[in-house]
Write a structure and sequence with these properties.
13 helices; 13% strand; TIM Barrel; three-stranded antiparallel beta sheet; alpha/beta; Methyltransferase; globular; transferase; 334 residues; 45% helix
Length: 334
C-alpha cells in the first residue's frame, strides 16, 4: 500500500500495512487568508489580521498569537457587536497559487488537505478576549448566537469557495473547545450555541465531497457523541487525558481519531530511549484494537530532535508489527 491507501484503510476500518499518523499521508495547501493573517515578522511588534485582531510574533516563540488588551479588542461591547465587527471579504484573494499547489500533488499517493484554522469559537475569543467571550456565552447567549451566525456564514462561504477552486480531500478545521482539564463551556451551552452552527459547517464540507477533520488537542469527551451527530469524520489531536477507550466504545466506531501518544510526557530532557518507545507502544496497544485509530503525538512531533527520531522510529517499526500481529476483524469496518 502507498501512504494514501494505508491511511484510508485505517479510516475505513480495513486492514492496513501499518499503523501510523494520518498526517504523514497529507499534503497541505496554503490558505490565502491564513497567509495574510499569520505570516508576520518575528519581531514582537503588533499587527492586525483581516478581522482586526491584534497579533504578535515574539522572537523564539513557535508562532504568532493574539495580543489582546481592553483597548485593542475588536468587540468591546457585546450588545453593540454589529457596530464593531467588520467581516473580511474572500473575493480579493489570489487562488492561482493554491491551484498550482494542488496540480503538483500526486493524488493517488497523497491526500490534499486544506488548513482551515480559527473556528467559530476561537474566532469569538480572538475578537473580544477569552474572559469576555466566556462571560458573554453565559450572560449574552442571544448576542453570541447572532455573532457566531455571521462568523459561521463566512466559514461556510470560504469552504465552498475553496472546494470550487481546488477540491481538497480534507478540510482540516481548527477549533479548540477545551483545555487538558475540561471544556471551556458547559456542554449545555456548547450544544445550544456552537453545535447547530458547527453542524451547518460540517454539512457544507460534506456537500462539497470532502472529509471533515476537526483539530482539538484538548478534552472533548463530554461532547464526543455530539461530534458524531455533527458529522465530524476524524478527530485530530486526541490527547490521552481523554478516556479514549471509552470514547471508542460510546461512539461505536463512527469517529476516527488521531493522537493518543502523550507528547509532553516524552518530549522532555533526561528521558530514556526505552521510556519514549514504551509510550508509543502503550498507545498502539491500548487504542488501535478499537479500530479507526491513527497513533500519533497530537501536535505531530517532538520538538527535541533526539526524542523525535526515537518516537518516529518506534511508531514506524511497532506500528507495522502490530498491524501484522493483529488483523482487523470485520466488526471494525465501517
Amino acid at each position: 500500500m502507498n501512504l494514501r491507501e494505508n491511511v484510508m484503510a485505517i479510516y475505513n476500518g480495513e486492514q492496513p500495512d501499518y499503523y501510523g499518523d494520518l498526517m504523514a499521508a497529507v499534503e497541505f495547501i496554503t490558505d490565502p487568508q491564513f497567509l495574510k493573517d499569520s505570516i508576520i515578522p518575528q519581531d514582537g511588534k503588533e499587527y492586525k489580521d483581516s478581522w482586526g485582531t491584534v497579533k504578535m510574533f515574539l522572537p523564539g516563540s513557535p508562532g504568532p498569537h493574539p495580543h489582546l488588551t481592553p483597548e485593542n479588542i475588536v468587540i468591546k461591547d457585546i450588545e453593540k457587536w454589529q457596530e464593531q465587527l467588520i467581516v473580511p471579504s474572500i473575493e480579493d484573494f489570489d487562488y492561482s497559487e493554491l491551484k498550482q499547489q494542488v496540480d503538483a500533488i500526486n493524488r493517488d499517493e497523497k491526500l490534499v488537505c486544506f488548513f482551515c484554522p480559527a473556528g467559530i469559537f476561537e474566532r469569538s475569543h480572538f475578537l473580544m478576549g477569552v474572559e469576555n467571550a466566556l462571560i458573554s456565552y453565559l450572560e449574552y447567549p442571544d448576542e453570541m448566537k447572532a455573532l457566531l451566525r455571521v462568523i459561521a456564514d463566512h466559514k461556510i462561504e470560504y469552504i465552498k469557495r475553496i472546494a470550487k477552486e481546488c477540491q481538497p480531500d480534507i478540510i482540516f478545521y481548527h477549533d479548540d473547545w477545551g483545555t487538558k482539564q475540561n471544556l471551556f463551556l458547559p456542554p449545555s451551552v456548547w450544544r445550544e450555541i456552537i453545535k447547530p452552527l458547527q453542524k451547518e459547517i460540517s454539512d457544507a464540507i460534506h456537500e462539497c465531497g470532502m472529509i471533515y477533520m476537526h483539530h482539538a488537542d484538548c478534552i472533548c469527551q463530554p461532547i464526543v457523541k455530539d461530534m458524531v451527530e455533527i458529522g465530524v469524520d476524524i478527530w485530530q489531536g486526541v490527547i490521552p487525558q481523554n478516556d479514549i477507550v471509552e470514547i471508542q466504545r460510546i461512539t461505536e466506531g463512527k469517529l476516527a481519531m488521531i493522537g493518543g501518544i502523550d507528547g509532553p510526557k516524552i518530549d522532555i530532557e533526561n528521558i530514556t530511549e526505552e521510556e519514549i518507545r514504551a509510550e508509543v507502544r502503550r498507545a498502539i496497544d491500548t487504542y488501535c484494537p478499537g479500530g479507526r485509530f491513527f497513533p500519533s503525538i497530537p501536535n505531530g512531533v517532538c520538538f527535541r530532535e533526539w526524542n523525535n527520531e526515537i518516537y518516529f522510529d518506534e511508531l514506524k517499526s511497532y506500528g507495522k508489527m502490530f498491524a501484522e500481529e493483529h488483523p482487523v476483524k470485520m466488526q471494525n469496518q465501517v
